[in-house]
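User: Predict the complex.
Assistant: Input components as received:
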Amino acid sequence: MDWLIAYIESVMRLAAPLMFAAMGGLISERAGLANIALEGKLLVSAFAAAAVAASTGSAEWGLVAGVVAGAMSGWIFGASTVWLKADHIVMGTAFNLLVVGVIPTLGKAWFGSSGSTPALGTEARLQAGVGFFIAGVALVLILNEALRRTRWGLRVHSAGESPNALLVQGVSPRRVRIGAACVAGALAGLGGVILSLVQGSGYVRDMAGGRGYLALAAIIFGAWKPYPTLAACLIFAAADSAQMLLQGKSVFDISVPASLIQTLPFIATLTILALRRKRVSAPRAINQPL
Amino acid sequence: MKLRNLFGSWNVQNLVKLMALGCGLLLALIAVLGLAMALGEDALEVARIIWLGAWGSTTALGYSLYYATPLVFTGLAVAWAMRVGLFNIGAEGQMTMGGIAMVALGILLPELPSIVAWPLTLLLGALVGAAWAAVPAWFKVRRGTHEVLVCILMNFVAYGVGGFLILHVFRNPESQNPETLAIGSGFQWPQLAWMGGQSPLNATLGLAIVIVLLLSWLSGRTRFGLHQRWVGGAAEFAERSGVSPTRHQVLAMLISGALAGMAGSSILLGYLHKAREGFAGGAGFIGIAVALLGGLRPWGVLAAAILFGGLQKGAIDLDLDTEKISRDLATVMQAMVVVAVAALPLLNEFWTKRLDPSTSWGRRLHRWLERDHPQGGR
């Protein structure tokens, strides 16, 4: 049974960054901001955390830097999209492209290597075990209540469903959306920190590897509700851990090549999306300019 | 006055759009050069290297056009889908799968003469690309899942499956690199040395231009093209006129996938003559920027692709000639162009207000436009 325990632990570890990114994305999508830029936010904060941790030698400063970088990039994405009245998906694509270009440029100027940051020693990494997973579950519980019962949650909800209702109350839906984008960025930033300081030891090129998009798929599968989204994250993490477990092993005497196994989480996601026959509807005012 | 007559056939709306686009591109350029200066490089020197690197010699121009060729295909693919209201962000995966299919045919049937091999490879590439795009189309129509998400997931599947095919099925066992066996000589497209000097520019550029012509005709001169644009621009009108939006969305996605499926032809059939892992190199994503900058029109896409090919070549020269700047600066430039185009509604609004006949600028402009044509200029 040892392998089962190891497997479950691995699922919990891999689920943590997905959960934070998905909860961040959920907030911003509920506020009406389509957030395809999650992938870019994960990368920015993973890089910022690793770069600061490598420069200061302190994991805590890396954590702070990652979250701040996430929140800032959330603000940049949210504010530019809202103020420019741009299509959210086009802006999100631009943001992801920008990140892919800017990180290696900064990395080359900072560390002389365009691909990655220097490998971190143990003192500059966070030793958290499954702590982040537990924090993530707590976040889901809190978020579920906060979205339904607090004033902030209802405002986020209105910004995504009918922004005019907010205007009538004298609340600026633009501000609510940008605020939600900041919170989303900070949470995705935490996900990025987990990638580079907990799971990895430093930043490697393209280290999010599509997790931002998987988080988005989890939100859609979860019909923009916290608990089903959490379930979807766990399923994807289970597929991801299975993928890692299967690598280099042979199944029924056939060794499956790594490149094929790596598609497992994505194929699992597609299958799950295909099996869900009920059409779920996005927040009504998503991707509508204000 | 010849010049004014040229403007006379224009209306203020077009001028507004052009001003808006010019402003956006200028801001993008300032942002990129600002980044270069922040890194401690001389902005003017950077601009000079990009300019000369892109068009400075026959070989440089050839490289720019060579880099532009796949972008024409992916740009057209993204643009066609977007005119029908779909965002095909999966061109990268479609290009990967289509390209591998084309190379596979060239490896399996190396004896075929060019007259059969060329159309057959293109057809196969287009079919496989369309098949890869059929998945997001199905999800969109049957499950209501946003096509962007499914396209991205299909990209990751394509990386895995493509890597498997290149590394395990068609791998060249004698090569140190992750690449396939070579295709038959009948499958290879000729180089255009008279045009591109030492560069790998090849005849697939001609193919790209033929496809631009074809799509321009299909979109602007046929009933099918008109219906496609109805669905993108006025879905409710299309539906009430008996044009099925669902059917046309699926068809648009398939056409888009077919175009992206052929995008690898320049790299694979014209230059490498085999497939390498990651040969698409982001062309599918740059195609988004190309399509947006080209105003989603075939000729615009061609022009934007050539501009972007030049930027790519210029950025590679920057990588070699400067201390701190890597070729990733090209990606930053492309991202800023997308931001500039995304900001067009706002810039449009600004210039429309600025050039309204009630303002002093607008009054002058309208008076000038209408001097010879009392009815023109509106």
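Residues 2-30 of chain A form the longest helix (29 residues).
Let me know if you want any component modeled separately.
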